Amino acid sequence: MIVRLRIAALLTVVVIMTLLLAPLQILGLRFDWRLRRRLPGIWHRIACRMLGLRIHVNGAAASGRPLMIAANHASWLDILVLSAVADVVFIAKSEVRSWPVFNTLARLQATIFIEREERRKTGDQVNEIGARLADGEIVVLFPEGTTSDGNRLLPVKTSLFGAASAALPAAPEGVVLIQPVAVAYTRAHGLPLGRFHRAIAAWPGDTELMPHLSRVLTMGSLEAEVTFCEPIPFSTSSNRKAVSRAVEEEIGNALHVMLRSPT
Questions:
Q1: Which of 27, 170, 173, 227 shows the greatest Cβ crowding within 10 Å of its Cβ?
Q2: 243: helix, coil or strand?
Q3: Tell me: the pLDDT tens digits for 58-117?
Q4: Taking 60 as the threshold, does the pLDDT of residue 120 lie above it?
């Protein structure tokens, strides 16, 4: 009964918060106000608090621009966590457009949708990402291309870094910064999560969304740790494979440290 009341209260607050902020965000998107970049962070910080999701941050987003964040991807919770600690926009697969609720929230955050199967649209999509980077927005890329079980980093896809190349012509010094970021879910109710129980937070493969969402809402207490690594300069002379290996190594090492010794 208490759990149901808590979930009802959480959903009520989220709905009210969305109804209050959404009109302002819509105007911000319509007229490209700078405020539109900050409002999603406010929404996500309140949502994290309501979920009982505490975030421990190591480091910070780089101050240089253009800046692309390359982060590991374990769950839809990553969106809340990263948005709560930095004013970012995301690159998402086109299927998100068909998800109830999530599609509206993604559009309000000016998410960039990618149609991976339609090659003819690739150029336009990459150009949009490049334009957003060049305009000073921090774009988050999940280079694994899918979610993991939260215990490991899947192979990083080199092709996804083509977006950084598109921003190079507009970069003041001909350099785009790619910052590896690791996100780990480390505790529930103050107790360390082991490999088996990390599934409480992680959302791998073809796991159904609604049961996982219900499990997170019921849990009521989770802790996440975020580590911002040193940014990697990307220029016309950079080798994509070398950059992807460096990104993979930085994220993997940070993830290993956080999972082994949670804050």
A1: 227
A2: helix
A3: 999 999 999 999 999 999 999 999 999 999 999 888 888 877 778 888 999 999 988 765
A4: no
Are 147 and 163 a contacting pair, CB within 8 Å? no
Rounded (5°) CA angle 43-47-49: 120
The per-residue pLDDT for range 172-215, each reduced to its tens digit, is 889 999 999 999 999 998 999 988 888 888 888 677 777 778 88
pTM of the model: 0.92
Tokens, residue 180? 């590896």
Q: Look at residue 53 in the predicted model and tell me its pLDDT.
A: 95
The CA distance from 150 to 3, in Å, is 26
Q: What angle do CA 222, 227, 231 make, to 5 degrees?
A: 155
Residue carrying structure tokens 């939260």 = 150
Q: Are 150 and 205 in contact (CB under 8 A)?
A: no
Contact 223, 187 (CB under 8 A): yes
Q: Looking at residue 44, what is its pLDDT?
A: 96
Distance CA 33, CA 31 (A): 6
Torsion of CA 91, 93, 72, 215, to 10 degrees: 120
77-85 helix and 35-51 helix, angle to the nearest 10 degrees: 120
Q: What length does the chain have?
A: 263
